[in-house]
Design goal:
There is one protein chain. By secondary structure, this protein is of the alpha/beta class. It has a single domain, classed as Spore Coat Polysaccharide Biosynthesis Protein SpsA, Chain A (Alpha-Beta Complex). The strands form two sheets. Strands 1, 4, 5, 6, 7, 8, 9 and 10 form an eight-stranded mixed beta sheet that branches. Strands 2-3 form a two-stranded antiparallel sheet.
Length: about 220
Amino acid sequence: MIVGVLLAGGASRRMGEPKAFARSRGQSFLVRGVRALWSACDRVVVVLGSGADAVQERASAEFGALVERGLLAPDLSAGPRGRTGDLEVHFAVNRQWRQGMFRSARHGLASALAFRPRGVLLHPVDHPLVRDETVQALGSMLIEALASFGGRAAARFPYALVPRHRGERGHPVALSAALAGEIAADGRARDLSDAIRRHARLVGYLDVADRGVLVNRNSPARRR
């Protein structure tokens, strides 16, 4: 099992409103991010911070409207092999969100590890254009890589898989459970990239044609 983590805890001063509320193709960034992660994960942890109550309330209402209209049926029928038919979203509030995205990432990873996954897909909410097939490919390749390590070694191996478009690294990032645990406990790294460099024994790259892995929409002029 892989658990998704969506980082949606920032104040979004440049956007003028929480990035989670910004919309792309008729859906909020938060809902688009969760649905993208659902293509590889049955469970997604959404990390909230600034305005957490309002964001959770609005997201829950949007998901409810999608259920009533039957628009989540494709999400249930797609996804990884062995899907149980149940899709879950869990909200985790990072009270230390002012410390930056890496603190939210650590909080989200710790929350995800409570489900005892084999790996985690970590994704920022301001990358709403990532394709489902890219997320699925990352999830499948992570599982295949861990299986190749064999037995108990796979559970202890700190491995990262990063999507890359035309030589540039993007999101979401796939982490083995062992590496996710190391990063969650690291209070000294500067950011996620630094934490991966400090703890990963192996970093793989998945070259994709999906430019969405690079597109960071963090200002009103670029959000649609």
